[in-house]
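Researcher: Checking consistency across runs. Here is Coproporphyrin III ferrochelatase again:
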Amino acid sequence: MSERKTGVLVMSYGTPETLDGIEEYYTHIRRGNPPTPEQLADLSSRYEAIVGGFFPLRENTNRQVACIQDKLDTMAPGRYMCYQGLKHARPYIEDGVANMAADGIQEAVGIVLAPHYSTMSVGSYVKRAMEKALELGIEMHFVESYHLHPKLLEALISRVKTALNAFDSSKPLKVLFSAHSLPVKIREMNDPYEEQLLATSKAVAEGAGVADWEFTWQSAGRTREPWLGPDILETLKDVAEQGYTQVLSAPIGFVSDHLEVLYDLDIEAVAAAEPLGVHFARIEMLNTDPLYMETLAESVISQDTWRQG
């Protein structure tokens, strides 16, 4: 075996490290256009509501990268070196690729901490990483999705089963699978995002023995263009009208405790469910679950064509 290491670029959306970094972060999301004072105040208040200045996504991502490294070291000692690349915060995706080049990495695999592929999400990470890799002479392959990996499904099924045990089995319950909404225009692009999300939802529901479930959307962007719906807040009204008094939220499009989970679900959705007479709770997020870490490590190894054959 060659002693030369394969780089692993672990990519995610990113988050500011402190409240003081929110404006720079929001400006990057808005492609260099600073947010209005009202927009900045709104985002800052959401972070303050969930974390009081501590940003769990950044810490979760750091731990996830470290755990992926540990899994790879166990499966293939000395073969891989993990690097982090964030979409909207430092170290940016391009920084991660540059760090690989500085360490003499010539071959690399990229993977995003999101199981489902869309040209507008994972595809944009891949594009940025590939452009920088070509510039620096790194040959790079990518894991585009892993939405039906058996170990990912096993981890999600276990979480759904565990969460269901806390509900009253004598009362009507609906399981709502959800993911981050994207602009409706992805449907014109033959984008696989919706299909992959439904496939994961179906597999998890079947594995957990759940017959009564729906898929819904959440966390749509605040832009003029239409986004995929219905939103989970609308779906909650619908299920309440249908007579359901319990809802288990399974946000399978997310893998970490961060804003879209800790605020949009744990605060906003819980507040919306209460006046409807609906008890709302969610599954635990994957974070550094060993099965999820093995999913990522195995997916990386499967793309490491330089070592195969």
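Researcher: Does this match what you'd expect to see?
Model: One thing to look at in this run: The mean pLDDT is 94.
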